[in-house]
Amino acid sequence: MHRCGLCAEACPASLLPQQLHFFALGKDYDQLKRQHLFDCIECGACSYVCPSSIPLVQYYRAAKSEIRALDLQQHKADHSRQRFEHRQERLQREAEQKERDRIAAPKAARIKAAKEAEAAKQSESGASAPASDAPAPKAGALSPEQKQLKIAAATAQMALKKARSSSLPTRITPTCRRRSRSLNKPPVRRRTPSTRPRAIPAANPLHPRPRPAATMRPKS
Fold first, then answer.
1. Cβ atoms of residues 27 and 69 within 8 Å
2. Which value, to the nearest 10 degrees, does the dihedral of the CA atoms of residues 150, 156, 159, 164 take?
3. Could you give the dihedral angle defined by the CA atoms of residues 204, 205, 207 and 209, in that order, rounded to the nearest 10 degrees?
4. pLDDT averaged over the chain?
5. What is the pLDDT of residues 170-203, one digit of tens each?
6. How far is the C-alpha of 47 from the C-alpha of 207, rounded, in Å?
7. What are phi and psi of 53, to 5 degrees?
8. Counting CB atoms within 10 angstroms of each CB, which of 112, 194, 217, 220 has the fewest?
9. Contact present, 46 and 11 (Cβ < 8 Å)
10. DSSP codes of every residue in 139-169
């Protein structure tokens, strides 16, 4: 292996192809990144001027592909680790919430039982209350018998008013007279066409009826 330095002089990106080749053979990817391996444009000038005919560009390409594969694998591993950590945190929160609910359940049950007992006591006290607590009737209220008598008196008064109005003479107005006349007038009989044949008047000697003209019969 020659260290002539011709590759460094021919590199258009001003890199050190000898160092890159050495680290690529040793698979020291961190050093390759420090030496700016990805700045190489893979033009092939270093391989062309190398007196030992070393395929430097092929080593660089293989090293780049390996570095990319390792970076992708590391990214997937980091993503999986983050998902696992988030899942563990979620499970921890759920477990803590379940524990708090378990501790608070007996207290909530006791509070509910106390409320139910209090409601039952109130319902029992309301059912056993004496009937004297009911509101007393008003002073001016009528009894059922008085209401019936009042209704009967009003009905009798209405019947008396109707009898008085029927016994009074009715006053005939002009309008009523016209109506009575039209009702008492006999209906007008309309003349209907008669189906009987008309009678032929007798012949008057002074005015004889004209005879129809004689029709000429053809001679046989």
1. no
2. -120
3. 70
4. 79
5. 555 556 566 656 555 555 566 665 555 565 555 5
6. 162
7. 55, 45
8. 220
9. yes
10. TTPPPHHHHHHHHHHHHHHHHHHHHHHHHSP
